[in-house]
Description:
The protein is α/β, with parallel strands linked by helices. It is built from 14 helices and 8 strands. The protein has helices at 3-19, 21-52, 62-75, 106-118, 131-135, 139-144, 146-158, 163-176, 192-203, 216-227, 266-275, 290-297, 330-338, 345-348; strands spanning 89-92, 207-215, 234-244, 251-260, 281-284, 304-311, 318-319, 341-344. Strands 1, 2, 3, 4, 5, 6, 7 and 8 form an 8-stranded mixed beta sheet that branches. Helix 10 (216-227) links the parallel strand 2 (207-215) and strand 3. Helix 4 (106-118) crosses helix 7 and helix 8 (163-176) crosses helix 10 (216-227).
Amino acid sequence: MNINHKKRNIMNKIIKFLITPSIFFITVTLLWFVAGCSSVVGKNTGELSNETNPLPSWNKSNTKSSIIDFVEAVTNENSEYFIPVADRIATFDNDGTLWSEQPTYFQLFFAMDRIKELAPQHPEWKNEQPFKAVLENDMKALAASGYEGLIKLSKVTHAGMTTNDFKTAVKNWVANTKHPAKNRYYTDFVYQPMLELLDYLRANGFKTYIVSGGTVDFIRAIFTDIYGIPSEQIIGSTIKTKFDFNNGNPVIKRLPELDFIDDKEGKPLNINKIIGKKPIFSVGNSDGDLAMMQWTASNSYKSFMLYVHHTDSVREWAYDRESHIGRLDKGLDEAAEKSWTVIDMKNDWKVIYPFELAE
């Protein structure tokens, strides 16, 4: 018998062995198991990577490490700093903390656009401040009108309608209007690293709240889906309202009168009134958030105070102590004095906005 014939006989015996039903089943099962294990390992490797890098848009820095160290400490049942899930409250300012706020608060841009929309019904506005400044795009004159001028604008643009009509107006505006300097929709200017931080905290049992100086209905109309925060966990400034049975079709009407300003000392007051617990984690960007930070720092639990310092003049805006918007002066000093964590936007964030991920 030649060598080739012997090889054929050996191969035939191997084939007969493999096609025996029980052996075939075992072979296929083993192959399936190996393939399955490979896919599981790959999947777990990816999940492990996400777990070990929960804030992918943050550069490796003391800021990122401090956040992760705090979260791990308060969620570890064996840690002396462990905090029950029910008490893991995190509060975030909105303007300048979760999205941009320059060259003025985006809600003011909304009010200005509303003034221009309503102007044909009010010819007297051409000669009356602050409406004249808005119609002429005179930001210097508008700023000179001060607090009283802004109140006038708010009363005209945020009142005199039902809550549903206001919500519709805000949604239409944000869906169709672009930032005058950046030529992108306003919702493009939410901070990607902050979206990741919100997700990271919630994944670790935190309940996240917005506590903003902006009006609550404006924020609720835009951000419940973007931030993943339900409307009942959004706290903000309010105007007075009244109930109208409206011939069996009840509505809530917005009145041209301020109810509560959720800024500075108003923030801890509203946190106490609405949440009923002190936060253990607070994030802000200005002196308007300082009282919220101080309230959080007074918690008997281990707490974490995080300031956003706008240091990136290229990708965003650089401002702090002298800014007319989002001034961070006293807060910056107290953060240094009490060793609170301060985000250096330029150096701590790989990207600032979600659209940068696709570029």
